[in-house]
Automatic annotation (TrEMBL):
Chain segments annotated as coiled-coil in the UniProt record: none
Annotated stretches, region: Disordered: 75-162
Keyword set includes Membrane: yes
Protein name, as recorded: SMK killer toxin resistance protein
Gene behind this protein: PKR1
Keyword Lipid biosynthesis: no
Gene source species: Lithohypha guttulata
């Protein structure tokens, strides 16, 4: 039982479904169905029947999804095995490293007649200081926000209406 709980705890941090997690899920849903059956027999309330049907549908959906995941993992493993088999049969494929080749970069155009106005305009825009975009000086507050008296008056007027 201890190893099952340790495996269950480890399966929580493992991506995907694990057999231990599926066993715990199925045991939990079986216990839930049993409790709902007991409550149905004790109270004869249709609510427990509806809850039981919803629980059974969710239980089925979880098991169906886990089965589909296993089928897809098996299909992906078979495809990967087939790709590796095909790669090993190709001549000259004794290593699996790839070499990146760099394409030669085009030479930069001279700023003569290609784009004289755009380049000149961009350089003039970047180098010209703009007086309108000066930073405000902070008066001790690290956020740079300075409140005004009118804001405090609005706050005090809003508070006196209560």
């Amino acid at each position: 039982m201890t190893t099952f709980l340790e495996d269950l705890w480890g399966s929580i941090f493992t991506p995907g479904t694990t057999p231990t997690l599926l066993i715990a899920t199925n045991a939990s849903f079986a216990a839930l169905q049993f409790v709902l059956l007991l409550l149905l027999l004790a109270t004869y309330s249709i609510h427990f029947l509806v809850l039981s049907i919803l629980s059974a549908a969710l239980w089925y959906a979880i098991n169906w999804f886990a089965q589909e995941l296993q089928i897809e993992h098996a299909r992906a493993a078979a495809q990967e095995q087939q790709n590796s088999r095909e790669k090993s049969q190709e001549p000259g494929s004794d290593t699996e490293t790839e070499i990146d080749t760099q394409m030669p970069l085009p030479k930069n155009p001279s700023p003569s007649t290609d784009m004289p106005t755009a380049t000149g305009h961009l350089q003039a825009t970047l180098s010209a200081p703009d007086d309108d975009l000066r930073r405000r000086r902070s008066l001790g507050d690290s956020s740079g926000y300075v409140s005004t008296d009118s804001e405090w008056e609005q706050v005090s007027e809003g508070g006196s209406k209560i």
